[in-house]
Amino acid sequence: MTAYLRHPLTIVWALLTVVTVASWLTARDGGAAHHVDTTVTLIVLLSAAIKTQLVIWHFMEVRHAPRWVKLTTNGWLVGLFGLLVGFYFVA
What we know:
Layout: H1 2-6, H2 8-30, H3 38-59, H4 67-90
């Protein structure tokens, strides 16, 4: 049982769960009466980017992929969340 708990994917899964709960609590407590808060939005988007990176690297096994795959997925992630933040501030 302890070997299962020490497995890297179990640790990453637990971290994903903690980040999900933390971002939910941040959004719930920071968005009173549907008031848009820039700080809360950025924190939730940043936590989503971190979770996406963890899923890509650990569950999609990109951490063992060739360098060009790592660079492509990292570029996609930075571009996507850059666009999301950009659209948020433009709107």
